């Protein structure tokens, strides 16, 4: 499948969640068996040479892509969740959003020090959530090899922010604009 065919499977919803935003909905791509398989295959081609031990998926669509990628690569999968969603002891990080703060958590001890990880999410915009997840993983002693996304919105600068923070970043599809 060509990249433009893959991109055509991503639905654009205008003015969501607010006027002026072009929401890029990957659920339509995930629903297409050939598109989903192609996307995961392309992600695996980028991540495989890094030989990660764990794929870490960011809530919520990062769980879908991350789990599929972990399975395809024979790696473990670890979810990074919003606060209060994981049972048992957790470690977390608070981070700033455009209009407030949020918190990400993972199970304490689930990522061993020195573990090689690839961080996965469906889309990168400003990069705030991915930067927080990478910092949380680093605080646990993980080596964040790459942040990998299905979709990049390059006008919002998220990939550049990750790379400025020392995290290699890549995306399969890019859409101009917000």
UniProtKB/TrEMBL annotation:
Keywords assigned by UniProt, alphabetized: Cytoplasm, Glycosyltransferase, Purine salvage, Transferase
Catalytic activity: AMP + diphosphate = 5-phospho-alpha-D-ribose 1-diphosphate + adenine
All residue ranges annotated as the Phosphoribosyltransferase domain in the record: 50-142
Gene3D superfamilies registered for this protein in UniProt: 3.40.50.2020
Pathway stated in the Swiss-Prot or TrEMBL entry: Purine metabolism; AMP biosynthesis via salvage pathway; AMP from adenine: step 1/1
Intracellular or extracellular location(s): Cytoplasm
Single biological process term from Gene Ontology: purine ribonucleoside salvage
GO cellular component: cytoplasm
CDD domains: PRTases_typeI (cd06223)
Molecular function in Gene Ontology: adenine binding; adenine phosphoribosyltransferase activity; AMP binding
Family (UniProt): Belongs to the purine/pyrimidine phosphoribosyltransferase family.
Annotated function: Catalyzes a salvage reaction resulting in the formation of AMP, that is energically less costly than de novo synthesis.
PANTHER family with a match to the protein in the record: ADENINE PHOSPHORIBOSYLTRANSFERASE
Complexes and interactors: Homodimer.
Name of protein: Adenine phosphoribosyltransferase
Gene label: apt
